[in-house]
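Thread: Newbie trying to understand structure tokens

Hi all, I'm a second-year student working on a class project, and my supervisor (Dr. K.) asked me to get a predicted structure for one chain before our next meeting. I've only ever worked with sequences, so writing a 3D structure as a token string is new to me. If someone could post the tokens and maybe explain what I'm looking at, I'd be very grateful. Here's the chain:
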Amino acid sequence: MFQKGDFVTINQEVGIVVMTGEELPGDMEDHTGVWFGECEQGVPEVQTIPTEYLEAGPRAGLRH
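---
Reply by user tm_fold:
Sure, no problem. This is what the structure looks like when written as tokens:
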């Protein structure tokens, strides 16, 4: 449903898809890996969320 780079929302938080279910380890085809901008000691923390809970997010505003 979602592809890498898509913005998604859950509970009014915006995140970006960084892994699809096929790329996640184990039996997680029905999940999506989403990054909400959190890092732990410089390492991005990706949350695995059931895809059905996600909604399409807003279009990104561009700055230069």
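A couple of things are worth pointing out once you decode it. The chain has a mean pLDDT of 96. The chain has no helices and five strands. Feel free to ask follow-ups in this thread.
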